[in-house]
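Hi R.,

Here's the chain you asked about this morning:
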Amino acid sequence: MKEAKVGKRKHPRTSVVWKLGREVKRVGDKTSLPYWRCSICKGKGIITVLSCKATSSPMRHIESRRYKKYKEQLIRLRKEKEAEGPNAPRPFLSISAIEEFRSLLLQWIICCHIALSMIENPLFRGLIEFINVLIIQFLPSSSNTLRQWVMDEYKR
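And the predicted structure, written out as tokens:
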């Protein structure tokens, strides 16, 4: 495949995949569908060409390269440090930090009249995970658990 100049289009390409790739066609083949070549891979010396009947396949490829679509833009995700054996330092949370989080969460829910079901909302959970990926494991996954926490706090 070789990159060929493409004539003017009736409609501009609006998908974010075109920010990280180019349209290519087979040389001499005027009837075939265009292909999408990944600019990320090209920069690393790898040739990745996908059919571009639709943009879902190029989007999956871009996501596999640690990019995510957010508000019609592509965002590069950071690489998480991988452990280098059993003695590698692991991030941790102290018991006091977990208790402080629990207390602040309950204060927010009670004082601001937040619905207990908010704890099950994937958008809320995503926000908490973004702020601190370690604390998500201590966030209750059920509104019933949160209800019990509120009742226990009231009794205390």
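The mean pLDDT is 78.

Let me know if you need anything else.
M.
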